[in-house]
Amino acid sequence: MKLTDAADELASAVRGDHSSTTKWRDLERWQQVGIVGLAAAEIVTTTVALVDIVRRPRPQVRGPKVLWALGCAVQPFGPVAYLALGRRRG
């Protein structure tokens, strides 16, 4: 991509001209399936993390529960970080 092409694309995005954006129907079937699958995994992971934060007693959570809950908004790293690092075992 030339620098002028990138500048034109940026200018189109700033103007709100989305004619160059890819439409859902233009994606290959495997791309659509992948996007739906990853979105579902993200929703499940976030739900599991938030339910665990609410149900887990305060002493079994590393750090403030409120911050972990807010951190779950940072997709996909927040919920994964909580599930891997935020819970005390035992």
From TrEMBL:
UniProt-recorded name of the protein: Cardiolipin synthase N-terminal domain-containing protein
GO cellular component, one term: plasma membrane
Bilayer topology annotation: Multi-pass membrane protein
Family annotation (InterPro entries): CLS_N
Membrane spanning residue stretches: 33-54, 66-85
Tree of life domain: Bacteria
Localization (cell): Cell membrane
Region of interest called Disordered, as start-end residue ranges on this chain: 1-20
Keywords from the named record: Cell membrane, Membrane, Transmembrane, Transmembrane helix
Domain Cardiolipin synthase N-terminal: residue ranges: 46-87
Annotated organism of origin: Mangrovihabitans endophyticus
